[in-house]
Every structure is written in structure tokens, then in C-alpha cells.
Design goal:
The complex is a heterodimer of chains A (296) and B (296).
Chain A lengths: L11 H10 L7 H13 L1 E4 L7 H12 L12 E4 L4 H7 L6 E6 L9 H13 L4 E5 L2 H5 L3 H15 L3 E5 L8 H14 L3 E3 L11 H18 L4 E3 L7 H15 L11 E3 L2 H14 L12
Helix pairs in contact in A: 1-9, 2-10, 2-11, 5-7, 7-8, 8-9, 9-10
Chain B lengths: L26 E2 L12 E2 L3 H19 L3 H17 L1 H12 L3 H21 L3 H5 L1 E3 L5 E9 L2 E6 L4 H13 L4 E5 L5 H12 L8 E4 L3 H10 L5 E5 L3 H10 L6 E5 L6 H4 L2 H5 L2 E9 L11
Parallel strand pairs in B: 5-6, 5-8, 6-7, 8-9
Antiparallel strand pairs in B: 1-2, 3-4, 4-10
Helix pairs in contact in B: 2-4, 3-4, 3-7, 4-6, 8-9
Classes of the chains: A alpha/beta (296), B alpha/beta (296).
Chain lengths: 296, 296
């Protein structure tokens, strides 16, 4: 086996305990407000459902640009949609600075031929996607065919052209932390601009220990090569407090350089509303109700 | 076993079907009517209240979509369980309110009967308060009652445990969920009642009971945007006015039960149920103009 696929072993208990420590950080007042605003600016507002319509995508784009008109808040980082919705989103977001990310490569299962996956990617890029979220072939990975997984990521990266590539490992299907670390290393070496935990379609999605171990993989790569790779936990992060814990973990693992939407994203559909509710609570002093915030 | 040390019960909060300690870690030491200590009791914080409202909101819809008959069955089950722990309640109430055991027993028995009374009403109040309305157009017009949503209850010391039982049994029977702050002097009976609720098939989150300081929490309760109605049982005019002012932002309904009016006629009445209902009126098109005989 190539040395590339020989990733370090993970101390699972140590990882879990270390990740749990970040939950004890108390972030209040000014720091909380700044953290919440930073979190908002890192969100990939996501709609990935079979029932998505053009109207729903346009509505989501509007929300991306106008999170809350009564609060001084940034826009989200990007909208994340299926390839056939890219053109719609691109048009709706024109001039706003909000990027369009598209899932590709037979998302979410990735169970298709290489040709179809490349065509899927090309479709999204041609329609103007700024970012591509691909899934790895978990079946091949489990068969031990790491070279196949590596080559596939490299090919998709090539097909992306100028678009940045996020590689979804779907950690919930990888099993052990050792496997997650190996998949992270493969993705990073094959040219991923971001590594991403999950599709959001299976449980468990993003967890703090898994994210921490992927951050460690990024850190090791950075220390060896000086090349930065971004991180995107996705799925299951739905409240502001958890988002702040992730930011604390990011800062203490990778440092200040990663604290922007260029290098860190939250893949989430519900998180934005909870963060807005917390910010509004800070402003008015009253706990908020979901009734007063737009659903999509 | 002459030197046996009694095992004392820790009274904690009741939130989302669990008995957590207050997140604040604080406690207070209330005294019974004769000056003896009632123990170390959780002094709930505004965050405990917030968590309780989240639980109540989450539970409310499923609770209100249960059949009215089933809600009645569960209320009756609560009465059954209270009856089986009657001796304990008699003792606790005697301590808290300084009643003789005969007086305490008759009060507890009347409260058990009150729960049975409201259990009977769950599938009957709709017939009493709904109506078919005459209108001057070709519509069949009818009004139905729906629960108002999440109700918060504040109890003064004077109303004590009686107010608590009456409020819970009249409010949840129609499908509301609630967060109740027990009066400062009745935490032991209140939390024991929570244990009764807990093993009576009442879904988690429908009733949440906190113990603590009324004056500390009152404003936060009144200002909370996700609370639909607030019941104040007591006679502090200044507090009532403050509740009314603070609650204006989300047009929260404020209901006031005076401690003076503790007659059975007042506390056992379908109008106590009606206070926590919303009316929904439907205009259903029909072929006949109002006034002429219907075709069906």
C-alpha cells in the first residue's frame, strides 16, 4: 500500500474528551455577538430535497441576502443546491457576493459511473457554480480501493476548473475515526479545497469529535506543506450555541487564519434562524419565537 | 436499625420529562408554615425557564392533536396516581401550609376530585363553546376552539399547591402545554406532583415545573416571545400591571386568578378552560343564501 494511505491512528477517547472540552467555553456579550455574526457569514444555506422548486430556491436566495432587515448582520457565505438549480440561484444572487455551491457526483450516494459524475460536475460548473460539493465513493473506500477514491477526487478537481472543491466524506458511513482520518488525508492530497463531514442525509452527520479529527488532518497537512485546506461540518448543527462551540474548536485547533468564510463553513438549513433569534434576543432582551422568523 | 440515617429526597426541577438540577447551580431554603426547613430547593434561572419553553413548544402540537378523550384518560390517570400517594401529599401540604392532617387530607382529596372534574371536560368543552353562526351570505359559518399554545403560570404563595393543581388540570386538558413556576413555599408538593405527572403517560414537555423566585423570573416570562398566554394566580396589583406591560410585544394573553376567589364554583368551571382557548371561525361556501332553508 502506498505510504499516502497510511494515515496515523486516532486516539478515539482522547478525541472525544478533547472535543467535549470546547463545550465548556463560556462565550458571552460582545464576544458572543461577534461570534454569532461570524457564524452567520460562514453558513452555506442549504436546500437539498427532491421537492425543491425554482420558487423555493429563489426564496432561499432572497433569505441569503436579507437574513434580517432589522439587525446589522452579514449575508451568508453561499447557497447550496442541486446542479439543476444552479442557474436559478446564480441569477437570483447576482451582484450580492453570495456564492453558489452545488452538490455533484451523484449526490448523496455517489453510486454512479465516473462519466456520469464528471458530467454532473461539468453541468454545475457550466451553469456558474462557484463551489462544488462532491461525495466520495464510500463503497470503493470500504473495499480498500483507496487509489480509485483518490483518482476520482483528482479528476473531479480538474473538472471544477476555477470552482472550489469541497469533498464530502460522509463520515457517518465510514465507521471508525481511523477511517475518517484516512479519507481526510486522501481528499486533501487529491486536491480538495475543503473537506466536509456529511451530506446531511444520514445520521450521524457532523459531530464535534469527527470535525476535530478532520481539523487535525488539515493542521498536519498545513504544517508539512504550508497549504491551507478549508473545513465544512454539515448536518445536525442547528443551534447558535453549538455553532459557537465549533468556532472555539476551530480557533484553538487551526488558529485565526481559518476564522473566515474562505476557510470554514457550516452546512446548515436551520442554524441561521437560531443564530438570528439569539442576536435579536441580545438586542431586545426578550427570548424569541420561531413564529417571527422566515422559515426558508 | 436504631441508628438509621433517613434518606432524604432531592427536589429538582421538572423539564421535558426529566428532573434536572437548575443550570445555575443555585438553591434556596424555604420554610414551612411552622418555620421548619423544607430542604434545599432549586432556584431556577431564566435559562431554565427558556429551556422549559423550548420543551413545551416542542411537545404542544403532538399533545393537542391527541384525541380529547385520550387527554381526559391521562388526566384521570394523574388523579389515580395522586390518590395512591395521598398520604405523602397530605404530609407535604401540612408542612408547607401548616394545616392539621384532617384539613390537609380534605384539601388533597378535593384536589384529586378537581383533576377528575377537568378530566371529564376534555371531550365536552368543545360542544359547549363552539357554535354555528348565522350569517347573511351563502356560507355555512362555524366557530371551533383551539388551544392557545404554550401557557406560562405564576403562582403566589397564597394560592400555593391548590392553584398549581387547578391551573395544570384546566389548562392542559384542552391541548395546551405549560411552564409553571411553583409558589416559593410549595416546591415539595409541586415537584412531587411532577413525579405523579411523570408516571401518568403524560408526554414529556407538556407540563414543566420550576421552583424559584417569582420576582426574578416574572419579567422574563412576560417578555418571552414564544409564550402565548400567561396566568397569574395571586393578588399583587403592581406585578400584574408589570406583566401586562411587558407582554404587549407579542400580544400575550394575560389571565388573572385572584387568590381571594378560591371558591369551588370559581375554580371548577369550564370557563377556566375557555380562558386558554382561541376561536377559529370557518366560512364554508354553501349553495343557499342565509335565511332560507338549507338543501341538506
Amino acid at each position: 500500500m502506498s505510504k499516502l494511505f497510511n494515515s496515523p491512528k486516532i486516539d478515539q477517547l482522547g478525541l472525544i474528551e478533547r472535543a467535549a472540552k470546547f463545550k465548556t467555553r463560556s462565550i458571552k456579550k460582545e464576544a458572543k455577538i461577534n461570534g454569532l455574526k461570524l457564524a452567520l457569514s460562514m453558513i452555506d444555506l442549504t436546500t437539498l430535497e427532491g421537492k425543491d422548486t425554482e420558487g423555493k430556491v429563489r426564496q432561499l436566495c432572497y433569505k441569503a441576502m436579507h437574513l434580517h432587515d432589522d439587525l446589522d448582520v452579514p449575508t451568508v457565505a453561499a447557497i447550496c443546491v442541486y446542479p439543476n438549480m444552479v442557474a436559478i440561484a446564480k441569477k437570483a444572487l447576482e451582484g450580492s457576493g453570495v456564492k453558489v455551491a452545488s452538490v455533484a457526483t451523484a449526490f448523496p450516494s455517489g453510486m454512479s459511473s465516473r462519466e456520469v459524475k464528471l458530467a454532473d460536475t461539468k453541468l454545475a460548473v457550466d451553469h456558474g457554480a462557484d463551489e462544488i460539493d462532491m461525495v466520495i465513493s464510500r463503497g470503493r473506500f470500504h473495499q480498500g480501493d483507496y487509489q480509485y477514491v483518490f483518482d476520482e477526487i483528482a479528476l473531479i478537481k480538474e473538472a471544477c476548473g476555477k470552482a472550489r472543491l469541497k469533498v464530502i466524506l460522509e463520515t457517518g458511513e465510514l465507521g471508525t475515526p481511523d477511517q475518517v482520518r484516512r479519507a481526510s488525508d486522501i481528499a486533501i492530497h487529491a486536491g480538495a479545497d475543503f473537506i466536509k463531514t456529511s451530506t446531511g442525509k444520514i445520521s450521524p452527520a457532523a459531530t464535534m469529535p469527527t470535525t476535530l479529527l478532520m481539523l487535525e488532518a488539515i493542521k498536519d497537512h498545513y504544517q508539512k506543506t504550508g497549504k491551507m485546506v478549508g473545513m465544512k461540518p454539515a448536518g445536525g448543527i442547528s443551534d447558535a450555541k453549538t455553532a459557537l462551540h465549533y468556532l472555539a474548536m476551530l480557533k484553538e485547533t487551526l488558529g485565526e487564519a481559518w476564522m473566515s468564510s474562505e476557510w470554514f463553513r457550516f452546512g446548515a438549513s436551520r442554524l441561521a434562524n437560531d443564530v438570528l433569534m439569539q442576536l435579536y434576543k441580545q438586542k431586545t432582551g426578550a427570548y424569541q419565537s420561531a413564529d417571527y422568523f422566515s422559515k426558508d | 436499625m436504631a441508628n438509621r440515617i433517613d434518606v432524604l429526597k432531592t427536589y429538582k426541577l421538572y423539564i421535558n420529562g426529566k428532573f434536572p438540577r437548575t443550570e445555575s447551580g443555585r438553591y434556596y431554603q424555604p420554610k414551612g408554615a411552622k418555620g421548619e426547613s423544607l430542604g434545599n430547593i432549586c432556584l431556577a434561572s431564566r435559562k431554565d425557564f427558556r429551556n422549559a419553553v423550548v420543551a413545551a413548544r416542542k411537545a404542544q402540537q403532538a399533545w393537542s392533536s391527541r384525541s380529547a378523550f385520550n387527554r381526559g384518560q391521562i388526566l384521570y390517570r394523574i388523579a389515580e396516581h395522586m390518590e395512591s400517594r395521598k398520604a405523602e401529599f397530605v404530609e407535604l401540604l401540612g408542612k408547607e401550609e401548616g394545616l392539621s392532617s384532617a384539613k390537609s387530607k380534605s384539601k388533597i382529596e378535593s384536589l384529586i376530585d378537581r383533576i377528575v372534574y377537568y378530566a371529564g371536560w376534555t371531550d365536552k368543552f368543545q360542544q359547549l363553546f363552539s357554535s354555528v353562526n348565522p350569517v347573511a351570505s351563502s356560507h355555512f359559518n362555524f366557530s371551533m376552539l383551539e388551544p392557545v399554545g404554550v401557557v406560562s403560570v405564576l403562582c403566589d404563595e397564597k394560592v400555593g399547591f391548590e392553584g398549581l393543581v387547578t391551573a395544570i388540570s384546566s389548562i392542559i386538558g384542552s391541548g395546551n402545554s405549560l411552564v409553571l413556576l411553583a409558589s416559593k413555599n410549595s416546591p415539595t408538593s409541586a415537584i412531587t406532583f411532577a413525579e405523579v405527572l411523570h408516571h401518568s403517560d403524560l408526554p414529556a414537555g407538556v407540563v414543566n415545573i420550576l421552583s424559584g423566585d417569582r420576582d426574578e423570573l416574572a419579567t422574563h416570562i412576560a417578555k418571552h416571545m414564544d409564550v402565548n398566554a400567561l396566568l397569574y394566580c395571586g393578588d399583587d396589583e403592581k406585578l400584574l400591571k408589570e406583566l401586562q406591560t411587558e407582554s404587549a410585544n407579542n400580544l400575550k394573553r394575560i389571565i388573572h386568578w385572584s387568590a381571594e376567589d378560591n371558591s369551588e364554583e370559581y375554580l371548577e368551571s369550564p370557563y377556566r378552560i375557555q380562558e386558554f382557548l382561541e376561536t377559529k371561525t370557518t366560512w364554508h361556501p354553501v349553495e343557499q343564501i342565509g335565511g332560507s332553508a338549507p338543501a341538506y
